[in-house]
Amino acid sequence: MKVNVIKPKTAIKKNFEMFKLKDDISSKLEFIRDIMFYRIVYAKQEIGTYTTHNPDQMILEFLEKLANYNNGDEKGVKVRLEHLVEKRSPILYQQYQTTYKNNELKYVLGLEDNLIRSACTEQRLTYQQLADIIGVSESSLRSSVSTGKVSKQVEKSIKMYLRISQLEKELEESRVIKATLKSWLS
User: Fold this and answer.
1) What's the alpha-carbon Rg for the chain, to the nearest Å?
2) What are phi and psi of 93, to 5 degrees?
3) 68 near 145, Cβ under 8 Å?
4) CA-CA distance, 100 to 47, in Å (whole number)?
5) Mean pLDDT of successive 10-residue stretches along the chain, which has 186 residues
6) Total-model pTM
7) Residue 7 phi/psi, 5° resolution?
8) Residue-range domain boundaries for the chain
9) 69: exposed, middle or buried (C-beta count within 10 Å: 0-12, 13-18, 19+)?
């Protein structure tokens, strides 16, 4: 019986194997933790096995390199990853999610250029929910997505909503920091 020996590489940018994203919406990217290492799997195909003590850094560096390889926005990956973090984990270096559906992945890599789809992915909203928030009908929003033509009013409304959402998140983080400092000083 032949034994398959796994030799994990260190999780640094130069060691990551890259691939072109598929158009199949059911494809997903997974960072799977085994006992001593992480396996990276895309569309049920193993990309590589890596060792790391900081999974967040591994995910960030992998996605930055993947964005570069797929002609995306490497510099914007960290910000988009931060937008996907719903709730901070109490475990250090384990904030980022470990599974990305293809549409989320395209958003994180800066490949999704449709503002409406990006906003829905970033905020985890349906088209109906976003339409209600910005005050337009769902049908006009869907029409904008399918034609790729977004009116200036809708574009400004979405950008304002995203900015407000980001500021609310930052405000909540500052409240947590304030409460932590207050408890330390007590």
Assistant:
1) 19
2) 70, 25
3) no
4) 15
5) 80 94 88 93 94 96 96 91 81 91 87 82 89 94 82 87 88 91 88
6) 0.70
7) -115, 95
8) 7-112, 126-186
9) middle
